[in-house]
Amino acid sequence: MTKKVLLAVAVLLVAVLLAAATDQDYRPQYTKDGQLIFPADYRQWQFVSSGLGMSYSASRPGAPRAPGFSNIFVQPWAYRSFKATGKWPDKTIFILEAYRSGTHASINKQGYFQDSFNGIEAEVKDSEHSPDVWSYYNLGSNPTSAAALPKAACWECHDKNAAVEHSFTQFYPELLDVALQKKTVKEGIYIAPSLNRLRDLIVAQGWGEGERALEEAKRHDGEASILDEASLNALGYQLIAAKRGADAVKVMERAAREHPDSLNALDSLADALVVAGEKERAMEVSQAILRKVEGEHTPFSDALAKASKERMAVLSAAQP
After folding, report:
1. DSSP H/E element including 136
2. Which of 31, 48, 123, 319 has its CA 20 to 30 A from that of 37?
3. 137 and 23 in a common domain
4. Per-residue pLDDT tens digits for 143-187
5. Considering its fold, how many domains does the chain have in total?
C-alpha cells in the first residue's frame, strides 16, 4: 500500500473507533438549567424491542383503530451490563421513538408497517441528577432538549408496574429471560409464562407443572396470551416436535375443553393422539369432526374433512 492509502485507512479506523466509543459510552447530558439533551445518535444504540398498538387503558368507543409503533433503544454498554447482572446501571438511557402505522401502500395489502414519525420519549436512570433516580422526558417530534416530566406523569406507573426497577422488561422477551434467570424481577410482579418458557417447563418437569403454570396464569389474568387457543395449539405442536406426545395430548385436550366450538382444536387433538399412539381415540375424534362439518362446504370445513378422512385411512391401514 502507498503512504496515502495507509493514512486514509488509519484515519477511517480512528473515526470508526471514536464513533463506536462515543455510541457505547454515552451518558446523559444536560443543559445548564437541567434539561436532558437529546442523544441524536440513539439509533446506533442497542435495539431492545418494539410494541404495536400498546395502551395501558381500555380503548375508547369511536377512537381511531390504526395501531402505533414504538421502538426502544438503550446504550450498548447499559445493555451489556443488564445481560450480565439483570439490573440497569446508573446513567442508563432508554429512548422510545413512536411511529404512526400504515397498511395499504406499495405492494402491502394487509398488516402494518411503520410510517410517519410521531415523537421521542426518554427514560433515564441518573442518581446524581434526580433524587428519584429515574426520570422521564417528552422530547416531542423535533427533539433538542426537555425538562423532566412531573413525577405523577410516568414515575409512579413505572414504579408500581415495571418488572425490573423502572423498566417494563416484561415487554422485552430476551431481557425478560435474563431477569428471570438472575431473579431481578420485582416482588409482586407476576410474569405469565410465554409459550417457549412453558414448553421448556413441561419438557423438564412434566405436564403437571405446566398445568399448574396455566392455572396460575388464569388466576392472575384470564386473558393472558398463553391461555388463548392459538397459543395452546402452537404449544401442543412444539411438544410433538420435542417427542412429548402424551404431554401434547394434555395440552390439546385443554384447548378443546376451553374452546368447545373450535373444530381446529379437535383436529389438533386428533393429531396429538396419533403421535401418542392413542389410535382409537384419534379415530373417534376424527369421526366427531366429520359429523360436525357434515353438510358444510367452506374451504376450512372441506380441509378439516379431508384431513380427518386421511387420518382415519392411515389409522385403519395400521390396524392388524
Report:
1. strand 134-140
2. 48
3. yes
4. 999 999 999 989 999 999 999 999 999 999 999 999 999 999 999
5. 2
